[in-house]
Design brief:
Radius of gyration: 24 Å
CATH architecture of the largest domain: Roll
Mean pLDDT: 85
Strand content: 15-25%
Number of domains: 2
Order of helices and strands: EHEHHEHEEHEEHEHHHHHEEHEEH
Number of strands: 12
CATH class of the largest domain: Alpha Beta
Shape: elongated
Low-confidence stretches: none
Helix content: 25-40%
Distance between the termini: 22 Å
CATH superfamily of the largest domain: ph1033 like domains
Length: 333
């Protein structure tokens, strides 16, 4: 479940810090000075901007657990003067005292705001904390770094369907789509939370793994038909290792009627994932087109190649299905 966090900027010092990292971006050159080029590159890969936005919390018995609960994709609201002032989305977390000192310095006790969270570009707001109806869903006052309870978030989801719709209706702001890498990280975090460890279930481990492999490889008859049509080779790479070959639908799977050879491709597992995400597209003419992010990767060699043809002309991919898939956007690319 995505969460909502609130940080307050109630003191003059905190409002000065807004100018340091909320109302304007922090240059990646400053991050590189502290973290080095390799770690900085990891953060730069998550944004198309020239800098990053951030906030942080000082060490403390309450702040640290709340910071540890933050996940990519969570919503952050900024409050001061008893009004909501900014909204943004968490794009990453970082615990680094040196980085925090570089951005904000220290407080009068020598502490710095080292429990950092990186944000998408904050959008300005001007909505009263006690104004209705927002006060009914969130809090009527705040003191310090606050996590909105899961119960309140669940109520919001039941009423509005998503946190994005809640923000749109309460604050008249549209939250940005997350870059693909961040969205995947959000999904991984949610999956990790859902998969709690239970020793009693370990006996079923192998069965579950094999079941997942079968599910991913595709419905048996559909996969067998594609294996035969493409002579057991990936339509993109030519890979002939059967264990990693999967039955990929071109147009979305809507039931057994979708399981026809003309609506399928035999793809290696990683290619299947890229195809589903729209990062690797196949034109109606059968030409491979890569997202710009892949052009400097190990997949670059497949750019502009033609996919393999099946044994029989009658088994060639449906032009209509290819066009439908080709015209669909990449998933939050």
């Amino acid at each position: 479940m995505r969460r909502i966090f609130i940080f307050t900027a109630g003191t003059p010092e905190a409002r000065d810090h807004l100018k340091d990292s909320i109302t304007q971006a922090v240059s990646f050159s400053r991050m590189e000075k502290v973290l080095g080029p390799e770690r900085t590159a990891q953060f730069k890969a998550l944004t198309n901007a020239d800098g990053f936005y951030a906030w942080g919390a000082v060490p403390g018995p309450r702040n640290k657990p709340r910071w540890e609960a933050i996940r990519v994709g969570d919503i952050v609201l900024t409050v001061y003067g008893n009004r909501y002032r900014f909204v943004s989305i968490v794009s990453g977390t970082l615990h680094d005292e040196g980085m925090a000192r570089e951005i904000w310095g220290t407080d009068d006790k020598g502490r710095t705001w080292e429990y950092m969270y990186l944000l998408t570009q904050p959008q300005a707001l001007d909505v009263g904390v006690q104004a209705e109806p927002v006060a009914s869903y969130l809090h009527r006052k705040y003191q310090g770094f606050t996590k909105i309870s899961d119960e309140k978030v669940q109520t919001i989801l039941e009423k509005f369907g998503s946190l994005d719709h809640f923000v749109e209706q309460m604050f008249q702001r549209s939250l940005p789509d997350l870059p693909l890498e961040l969205e995947l990280e959000q999904v991984r975090a949610e999956a990790s939370e859902a998969d709690s460890f239970n020793p009693a279930s370990m006996a079923d481990g192998r069965t579950k793994v094999l079941r997942e492999v079968v599910r991913r490889q595709g419905q048996l008859k559909f996969r067998e038909a594609l294996m035969a049509a493409y002579e057991g080779k990936c339509a993109v790479t030519g890979c002939d290792i059967e264990a990693v070959l999967e039955a990929a639908h071109i147009a979305p799977y809507f039931g057994k009627d979708s399981n026809v050879v003309q609506n399928g491709l035999l793809l290696r597992a990683d290619i299947h994932t890229l195809f589903d995400l729209g990062q690797l597209k196949i034109s109606p003419e059968g030409t491979i087109e890569l997202h710009k992010r892949l052009l400097r990767s190990i997949y670059a060699k497949y750019e502009s190649r033609k996919i393999r043809s099946p044994l029989k002309k009658s088994q060639e991919p449906s032009l209509e299905a290819l066009t439908l898939k080709y015209m669909s956007p990449s998933i939050r690319a």
